[in-house]
Each structure stands twice: as C-alpha cells, then as structure tokens.
Write a structure and sequence with these properties.
With 666 residues, the protein is mainly alpha-helical. Helices cover 67% and strands 0% of the residues. It has 4 domains: 17-228, Alpha Horseshoe (Serine Threonine Protein Phosphatase 5, Tetratricopeptide repeat); 239-356, Serine Threonine Protein Phosphatase 5, Tetratricopeptide repeat (Alpha Horseshoe), CATH 1.25.40.180; 368-525, Serine Threonine Protein Phosphatase 5, Tetratricopeptide repeat (Alpha Horseshoe), CATH 1.25.40.180; 538-661, Serine Threonine Protein Phosphatase 5, Tetratricopeptide repeat (Alpha Horseshoe). The longest helix is centred in the last third of the chain and has 22 residues, at 534-555. It is found in: Cytoplasm.
C-alpha cells in the first residue's frame, strides 16, 4: 500500500519549474490546453481577455442541475457513493482503488461534485487528509476527471466559501491554500483567480480567499516549495528530487548513449505515474539540443517497446508539452514547429498514437519579427507574379528570410506563396509551382509549409472555395517536381493529425489519386493549363530534357568543353543542381565514372557553384527510396561519392555538416 502511495504521491506534481511556475508572461505562464477535450462549448480559462468567460461559467453552473435523463434518486446515489469513496480513501490511502471506484461509478458530468466534496471534507480534517486530497486530485486530473469538471468543482467551492465558514472558521484560508496548490499542480489555470474575482460579491469570503491565494501563497518567495510542503509534503522522495534525477539520467544518457543504463535508472526511480515527466524533459532536451534528437527518440522508442514507459504516460508527456508550448517558445522560438516534427517522427515510428494527443491551440498572434517577414514575403511574391523573375526572388528571399527570431521562415514562405497563388489564376499557380521547384529549400521545410496549409484548410476554404482541388494539385506537383519525396504525404498526414473525411484528408486523397494515375507526371505538370505561365513550365521541362540529352551525349564520348558550354547556355544557374543530381544517378546506375570528370570540370571552372553541388547531392539523398529499386547499393555508393567529392574539394567539411543536419546528405 505504501508503495502505491509513493508512486502516485510523486506522480501528482506537474509544476513546471522551468518556466517559473505559475507566473508566466502576462500571468499565463503555466496553463494551457485546459479545455482541449471534446467539450467544445467551453472557452479556455487561460485566456484572461475572454469575453465568453461569463457564458462559460453560466454553462458549467447549469450543468450541475440534474438533467431529465438523470433521476434525482440517481443524483443522490452518486453523492452517497462519492462520500463513501472519499471516506475509504482517507482510511486506506489507496489512490488506485479510489480512482477505479470513481470510474466504475460513472456519471462523469457529476465529477465536479466529487471534487467539491473531497476538498470540503478534507478542510475540516488534519493536514494528512488535506495533503491526500491534493495528491488524489492531481492524480485523477485528465485521466479520470475531465479538466472542465475539476475547474467547475473549484468554482463551486469558492462560491460556497461563505457557507463553509459557518462550520470551518478558517475556511477562507484553507481553501485559499487548496486553490493555490491546484494552480501549482497545474490542475487549475492561474486565470482562475482573476475570473472568479469578477463574478463574486466584493465582501464575500470568496473574494477574501482569492486575494489570499494570490498575494499570500502564490506571490511569496519560494511559493511552490512552500505549498508542496504546506501539509507535510511527500512521505518519501520529493518531486524536485525526482525531476533532478530525471534530468541527470537524461544528461548522462546523451553523453554515454547507453540505453541499458538509462532503462535501469528509469526503473530504479520507481515512479511509473510520473513517467510522463521523463517524456516531457526528454522532448525539451531534444528541442534544445538538436544533435541529440536521434538518441532521445531512440530511447523513448525502446522504453515504450519494452514496456518501461506505457503508452498512456507517453501521450501524457507529449500533452503536457503541448499545453506549455507557447511558454516554451520564449526559450526556444521554434518550439511549436519542433514539437510537431517530433510528434510526426514518433507517430511514424509507431510508439506514439497521434490521435491521443490534444490539438495545438492556435497561436494568439505572431511576433513583430514574423509579421514583418510575412509582409516582406507577400511583397516579394506579388512582384514575382508581375515580373516572373526567379533570380530576383531568390536574391530577395535570402535577404529577408533570416530575420532574427522568425521561426521556420521557409515554411512560412511556402504557405504564403501557395495561398497567394490559390487566390489567383492558373498563370500564378503555375508560376508558384515553378518557383517552389527552383528555390533551395530543404524538403522538411516545404513539408512543414504544406502541413500548415492543411491544418488551416477549413478556415481558408471560406476565401478559396476550390482549395481542396488546388492544394491537392500543388502537393502532387511538388512530388513530381521532386521538391518533396513521395513519403512526405504520409508524414504530412500524421503530423497534421488529419481526421478522416475532413477537408485535409480530401486534399491528401486527391494528391495520391493524381500521382497514381496513368501518365501522372505529364498530367500533373500540365495541371494549370498553358495560360500565361504555361511556357515557363515548358521551359523547366525542356531544361530537364536538355540536361538528360547533354549528359547522354557526353557519356557517349562527347567533349567536356562542349558539355560545359551547353550547361552554361541553359541560362539557369539556380537549376544546376539538376545536372549534379542526374549525373550522379547515371554514375551509380552504370557504375561508370565518366560523368564524374564533367562534374569535376564544372566545379573547377566555377560553372557549378558549391551550393548547387551540395544541393544536387542532397536531391539524390532525398530520392533513396526510389533509387534503391534500380540501384540496391545506392546508399553505399552515395557515401563513397560524398567522401570523394569532399577529398576533391567540391564539398567542404562545413558544408557537408550542414547538409547532414538538414537531412540532405546522410
């Protein structure tokens, strides 16, 4: 029995010390995702400026009245059995037994009464029962009692403060501690205090306890530690001790890479109800230290497969991070996008069920830097649609996309480009596809841009009626143009948590159907017709044909100077990576180094720049899944040629390292 209490005693604390506990920016620092469940008629209590909060409170108060489907006798029976569960819990200290009995009792819409009864009974008892009540609430939160029911239960307690004071003289003070403790344990939002103060009479005990909770308990130095120990705290190991040990074992694992030792340390912690904290800290570490991402994901996958951390705790760890992603963005500007990428990878590897996660709340507003970037990107796109000057776009984009503090500028530009094109005619759509295939953008950034488009497709449909058809063709065209590998469609679907029968699902279905059709490549390349920019599309295809022909001619015994002249006359230096790519493919297919000499000459005279050379190698790496069908040893050959190119000075060490980090050159 003691062992169960020890595990759950630790597992109840979810205080986020990393972000300053309760007092995040604008008073919202530690709350997120309270109402991300299916209760769509609730507003988010973390929104201090929400005009719907009064309506929200009225709705939850109305819910307490027995519905016509729930007879008064059943109402009384629930309250009677709830009291028995609480009394048995205070006697046995068995958290799991209480949790299971509450679950078996049913009527989840009445769980707010359980919350209210638990706290009100503990208020008139010893510190032991008060501590046990806080532990139980934190353990039951989300998994056994829905967040709105916890919120509603505390609303009822505050509202009843005057009545409770009749039997419990210091009720306002005790209840203030319970409320402050709930905020520290992250089962109530800090905004709870502000919202409640707006609905209570000025002279009520409720106002008094709100002030005490805010000024006496949550504003005091070391308030978190004081609140956690107010009623005696944990009987054994403290939450802070566990968090420190988790951090130590993760840091040691990153240095050593010893999965067996890490698994042993996790087992020795003996806190299965707190394993979500391991997941949460590991994910934060992966976002802070990108080089350690692979190691960390491998560890989480292994401990999940071996049952050391169960699926529920894995999901809970991700959900805790989703709840605080906006706060995390203060330290890691791209935290939201990085977390979405981690979710995508974990789901694709099979150790995370994406459907079990809460949805990402929409960002309240873009920061100034991102807004400025979007304004500049829009200007660049509009000018491009007028002039068709791709080189000017490349030059302008290089100037603006590295604005400080702008998260994922490439993905933002892709989204803005395609959205702008979908609002225009076929000419601009064709121009957008051509520009997308001409820019030097990592495939993962382009995929992220498409994922952002799919996530917002429902809203955009109001302004773009044909968005499903247009976006589906843009996605298929990106695959045909080799801007994205075919596998990106599956990755985008998983990362965007696409729901069946949704507009996002229809977009992906249309893309897949278009790609599977007979002569799909030719049809997709002509999907925007021949109006206006059709000749530009033909130019790109003609260039690809010319590259193939000049390489074939050179491989048949042509002159290197003539081949270089033909490459120069293409007049598309930003497209020279295609020469590198196709030459490398031929070299590996035929196991003939004749074309290597052409690449050497192009590099030595500066015809093909190091950037284009690197991009060409990267495009080959992106196509491994398809190439392996014709060249089984493609990866082995490719690595050999990468090393050879580095020795000959085509790829310097720093460029290669960058490429590896971007996933372009393995």
């Amino acid at each position: 029995m003691g062992n169960v209490f020890q595990m759950t005693q630790v597992g109840n604390y979810a205080y986020n010390e990393r972000y300053g506990g309760v007092t995040g920016p604008d008073g919202k620092g530690t709350w997120g995702g309270l109402l991300d469940n299916e209760a769509d008629n609730f507003c988010d209590p973390k929104d201090l400026n929400s005009e719907d909060m009064v309506e929200f409170l009225e709705l939850i108060y109305q819910e307490e009245r027995p519905s016509s489907s729930l007879k008064p006798s059943l109402d009384l029976e629930f309250k009677k059995r709830a009291r028995v569960i609480i009394e048995e819990y205070f006697t046995t200290d068995d958290i799991m037994s209480a949790a299971n009995e509450l679950k078996d009792l049913g009527f989840p819409s009445y769980h707010h009464y359980f919350v209210k009864k638990l706290v009100s009974m503990a208020m008139d008892m010893h510190d032991r029962e008060k501590e046990m009540s806080s532990v139980l609430l934190s353990t039951l939160y989300a998994e056994f009692i829905d967040p709105p029911q916890v919120y509603k239960g505390f609303c009822k307690l505050v509202e009843s403060a005057d009545d409770l004071s009749v039997d419990i003289p210091d009720a306002a003070n005790v209840l203030a501690i319970f409320v402050a403790r709930a905020i520290v344990d992250e089962i109530l939002p800090p905004a709870f205090l502000t919202k409640q103060s707006e609905t209570l009479p000025p002279e009520s005990k409720g106002i008094e306890l709100i002030k005490r909770a805010s000024k006496s308990y949550l504003s005091a130095p070391r308030h978190t530690e004081n609140l956690l120990r107010k009623w005696g705290g944990s009987k054994n190991i403290t939450v802070n001790d566990v968090k420190i040990r988790i951090n130590d074992l993760l840091m040691e694992y990153i240095v050593s890479g010893d999965k067996a030792e890490a698994r042993r340390c996790i087992k020795d912690l003996n806190v299965p109800f707190f394993h979500h904290e391991i997941v949460k800290q590991a994910l934060i570490l992966a976002m802070e230290r990108r080089s350690a991402e692979g190691l960390i994901l491998d560890l989480l996958k292994v401990v999940h497969e071996e049952g050391a951390i169960n699926a529920s705790q894995i999901s809970k760890g991700f959900n805790r991070l989703i709840d605080h992603v906006d706060d995390l963005s203060l330290d890691i500007p791209s935290a939201r996008n990085l977390l979405q990428l981690l979710i995508s990878k974990a789901a694709s590897e099979g150790w995370l069920c994406a459907s079990s996660l809460r949805s990402f709340g929409k960002q309240v507003e873009d920061d100034i830097a991102t807004k400025n970037f979007k304004v500049n990107a829009t200007s660049i796109i509009k000018e491009y649609f007028l002039t068709g000057d791709i080189l000017e776009v490349i030059s302008s984009l290089e100037t603006v996309k590295y604005f400080p503090a702008v998260a994922q500028p490439n993905a933002v530009f892709v989204k803005k480009l395609i959205t702008s094109a979908m609002e225009r005619k076929n000419r601009e759509k064709e121009m957008a596809s051509i520009l997308l295939s001409s820019l030097r953008l990592p495939a993962e950034d382009v995929a992220l841009g498409f994922r952002m488009l799919i996530e917002s497709v429902e809203d955009a449909a109001l302004d773009i009626p044909a968005i499903v058809e247009d976006l589906g063709m843009f996605l298929a065209r990106a695959v045909v143009d080799e801007v994205l590998p075919p596998s990106s469609l599956d990755e985008v679907e998983v990362a965007a948590c696409v729901i069946r029968e949704s507009m996002g699902a229809k977009v992906l279905q249309l893309s897949r159907s278009a790609l599977k059709a007979r002569l799909s490549g030719e049809r997709i390349l002509r999907c925007w017709g021949s109006s206006g920019a059709g000749t530009m599309g033909s130019d790109i295809n003609d260039v690809k044909d010319k590259i193939i022909k000049l390489l074939e001619e050179f491989d048949s015994g042509g002159d290197v100077r003539e081949a270089c002249r033909c490459i120069k006359e293409l007049g598309m230096p930003f497209f020279h990576h295609e020469v590198v790519k196709k030459a490398l493919v031929v070299i590996m297919e035929k196991k003939n180094d004749h074309l290597w000499g052409l690449l050497r000459e192009c590099c030595s005279i500066g015809l093909i720049t190091p950037d284009q050379m690197l991009k060409g190698f990267g495009r080959v790496a992106d196509g491994f899944d398809d190439l392996v069908l014709d060249v089984p040893d493609v990866e082995e050959q490719f690595r050999m040629y990468v090393e050879r190119a580095k020795r000959e000075g085509w790829l310097n060490a720093s460029s290669s390292a960058i490429a590896v980090d971007n996933g372009e050159v393995p």
